[in-house]
Amino acid sequence: MAGNSQRKGAIRKTERKGSEKGSGGQRRRGLAGKKDIPKAEDRTYHAAYKRKKQQERRASGAHDNRAAIRQRHGMDEQVELVVGRNPVIECLHAHVPATALYVAEGTKSDERLAEAVHTCADRGIAVLEVSRQELDRMTGNGMHQGIGLQIPPYQYHQVEDVIERVQADVKPGLIVALDNITDPRNLGAVIRSVAAFGGHGVIIPERRSASVTAVAWRTSAGTAARLPVAKATNMVRALKQLQQAGYQVIGLDAGGDHTLDTYDGTTPVVVVVGSEGKGLSRLVRETCDTILSIPMGGKVESLNASVAAGVVLSEFARQRRIKDSKK
């Protein structure tokens, strides 16, 4: 039999001919992804690419138009516009240092609009009529109700200014410090609550914090003009400075040493409010003399920062009124 020869020098064959298992790596190579495949939005022939370019042109054009309009009206990029009839009226009542009033053409007049125009005319504030589309571009949205009040950049105070303001008042100091608050609406609401409940000022960090923008002006309803807002280069250092001035620094957080029902808020106090998500930063929390929690029922675990500040300020104001009535 072939391959089984017994003669000297013969070799027995052990390998068999025929197909073997597997594809020799062809399937593996076929399943492997191709290298350097661009995203759909980066392929010039793809619809996603055309949509991306169209959005970029729109965004660029809107920014350029807005910048050109603001430049045409002599508006610096840092100048803010407070929009809406009630916020504008409240800012004028609070004597916010306004520089111009913009009114959209064809805006239906009412008592608030007439009051705003007359007040600005009496104070020598320029009243300018612009098209509605132009006011849309100046403000960046169409929720202006046909009116916008131009105000210069906010002039921040120093922490020392807030302390001096308290010293000039016979009432114990009541200050709110904000930590990790990045929403200007929360900042504006806190400013409004501090002013409403007899507080003396608000302190915000210089970095990673909301600023007094047009949104904050609107939410504060103009009270930012009456209440000093100080910027602290280092919040921990500012809190220690207030402690040296005789203040108790309390931080709002769950599981505190005290609850709002057990804490005496009639002494000079600084209420430190953190964000709803992150809460107080570690160093700020360690600097606080006391951690205070707000008793809550139901399944609610936390409150919005501005709401929490308002609740605490309202309770402290109540305690102080009771104390004053007993004198």
Description of the structure:
With about 325 residues, the chain is of the alpha/beta class. Helix content is about 40%, strand content about 15%. It contains 11 helices and 11 strands. Strands 7-6-5-10-8-11-9 form a 7-stranded parallel beta sheet, sandwiched between helices. A 4-stranded mixed beta sheet has the order 1-4-2-3. The mean pLDDT is about 80. Pfam families: SpoU_methylase, SpoU_sub_bind. Keywords: Methyltransferase, Transferase. This is 23S rRNA (Guanosine(2251)-2'-O)-methyltransferase RlmB.
What features would you highlight for this structure?
single chain; 327 residues; alpha/beta; 11 strands; 39% helix; transferase; SpoU_MeTrfase; tRNA_m1G_MTases_N; rRNA_MeTrfase_TrmH
List the uncertain runs. Answer: none
Strand order across the biggest sheet? 7-6-5-10-8-11-9
Mean pLDDT: 81
- Alpha plus pi helix count: 11
State the shape. Answer: flat
Beta-strand segment tally: 11
Query: How far is it from the N-terminal to the C-terminal residue, by CA?
Result: 127 Å
N to C succession of SSEs: HHEHEHEHEHEHEHEHEEEHEH
Helix-strand makeup class: alpha/beta
Helical content (DSSP H or I, runs of 4+): 25-40%
Q: Indicate the radius of gyration in whole angstroms.
A: 33 Å
Q: Could you outline the blueprint of secondary structure elements for this entry?
A:
Layout: H1 26-31, H2 47-72, E1 80-83, H3 85-93, E2 100-104, H4 111-123, E3 126-130, H5 132-139, E4 147-151, H6 159-167, E5 174-179, H7 184-196, E6 201-205, H8 214-220, E7 229-232, H9 235-244, E8 248-252, E9 258-259, E10 269-274, H10 282-287, E11 290-293, H11 305-325
Parallel strand pairs: 2-3, 5-6, 5-10, 6-7, 8-10, 8-11, 9-11
Antiparallel strand pairs: 1-4, 2-4
